[in-house]
UniProtKB/TrEMBL annotation:
Residues 6-61 form the Phage tail collar domain. Gene3D superfamilies: Phage tail collar domain. The lineage of its organism: Bacteria, Pseudomonadati, Bacteroidota, Flavobacteriia, Flavobacteriales. SUPFAM superfamilies: Receptor-binding domain of short tail fibre protein gp12. This is Microcystin-dependent protein. It comes from Chryseobacterium indoltheticum.
Length: 179
């Protein structure tokens, strides 16, 4: 399968053809492949003296190097992203939780005869439960309902729908001209 040295293709088989190798981040001896090293350098790893790295596209999607309008900058060879993330309070949009319900408390309009509420029913003081609009002694007390913490800090999968295939790189073939 003829190719241009450094060319990457998706290949649907479970082997890399002759003169091609998987894009799996393998370190290659410079002495065994000086033509490909002259194109890739150490962009994808290696020490630049004895070895250089092939791109690692195992489990990754390729993205164009550079920056488009409104997009992040990606350097050639930069690896970024993750398959999962854990949502925290700081990265959720501002929102509120509303709690509602009916609370029924039995109460009597007669005067109470105990100094403690323990094992007793609410009772009143004189005119405590009046329904007259002009009575300013009736006070509404806010009811605070605490909504408990929820969640288990389990990361969620953010992987886009994918199909497993092999990226291969041409190791030997036509040397690309720079012009």
């Amino acid at each position: 399968m003829e190719g241009t040295i450094g060319e990457i293709r998706l290949f649907a088989a479970n082997f890399a053809p002759r003169d091609w190798s998987y894009c799996n981040g393998a370190l290659i001896a410079i002495s065994a492949n000086t033509a490909l090293f002259s194109i890739l350098g150490t962009t994808y790893g290696g020490d630049g003296k004895v070895t250089f790295g092939l791109p690692n596209l195992a489990g990754r999607s390729a993205v164009g190097a550079g920056q488009g309008p409104g997009l992040s900058y990606y350097a050639l060879g930069e690896m970024t992203g993750t398959n999962t993330t854990t949502l925290t309070i700081s990265n959720l949009p501002p929102h509120t939780h509303t709690a509602g319900g009916n609370i029924v408390i039995p109460a009597y309009s007669e005067e109470g005869d105990s100094a403690t509420p323990t094992n007793n029913v609410l009772a009143s003081k004189g005119s405590m439960y009046t329904s007259q609009a002009s009575d300013s002694s009736t006070k509404a007390t806010p009811l605070n309902i605490q909504v408990g913490v929820t969640g288990g800090s389990i990361p969620i999968n953010i992987t886009q729908p994918s199909l497993g295939m092999n990226y291969i790189i041409c190791m030997y073939g036509v040397f690309p001209s720079r012009s």
